[in-house]
Amino acid sequence: MLEEYKDIVEKLMAENPHFAAVVEKHDELDKLITEVEEGREHMEDLELEKLKKEKLRLKDEAYAMILEYKKKMTQ
Question: How many C-beta atoms lie closer than 10 Å to residue 20's C-beta?
Fold first, then answer.
């Protein structure tokens, strides 16, 4: 997730427990969604869509925290 910000992600993972929790939850959802899409797990389409939306929300939240961190570092 957000590979272009790898250094910032690593720093925030170590320094910010909320950021770390958001990234970990995103990664968990990513794995589950992949399992469902590849047929190793079963889930109703509506539930899968909810998980995808939650994953996107978490990515957006992490991205906002990255941008805030970058803003602070350039001031």
Answer: 15
Distance between CA atoms of residues 20 and 35, nearest Å: 23
Host domain of residue 61: 3-73
CA distances from 6 to 37, 41, 42, 67 (A): 26, 30, 32, 13
Distance CA 41, CA 54 (A): 18
Predicted model pTM: 0.89
Q: What is the pLDDT of residues 31-57, one digit of tens each?
A: 999 999 999 999 999 999 999 999 999
For residue 41, the 8-state DSSP code is S
| The two structure tokens encoding residue 41 | 């797990």
Number of domains comprising the chain: 1
How many residues would you count in the chain? 75
